[in-house]
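Page 47, continued from p. 46.
Same chain as before, 199 aa.
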Amino acid sequence: MAYEVPPLPYDYNALEPHIDEATMKLHHDKHHQAYVDKANGALEDTEWQDKPIEEVLQNLDSLDGDKKGVVRNNGGGHANHTFFWEIMSPDGGGAPRGALLDAIVDKWGGFDEFQAEFKAAGIARFGSGWAWLVKEGDGVDIVTTPNQDTPVMEGKTPIIGIDVWEHAYYLNYQNKRPDYIDAWWNVVNWDEAQKRFEG
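Result:
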């Protein structure tokens, strides 16, 4: 079964003013679709074409050399963006609760301290990439990945992740990545993050 771009779980304009409708349309309909098309093309007629994308990404070394890079970039783009849409919500923002908040406080001393570290990681990611909060044993950690690499490739479970490719924010924020990260906190779906942490 070929991969498909999942529908957004909210309207294109639902995350405004933090993420604008024009960016969401371009990001979801054009960028994500391109990743899906190229990943499908690379995996067609291989043993991996019907496997979940996360399984494929964990087994990149099993792919032929000419397909490996295409699937890494585009399969990673598909996995990352499918996750990204779900980890945002028009009802998002605030702070996590329960076990996830406890894990964050244990690691960084407080939620504000975590936000500062996460923002710094997102700003410091040179060029295109992602900043992630991942599950690390019983706790959590912050990691960044270049391009469309994903923590899934290293067997890690993403809890939240922010796309810091310019296509994710440039229409509204131009070169002001820090402002985009500040605004993004208002749409983080902590209920979904909690499920991923506890899952």
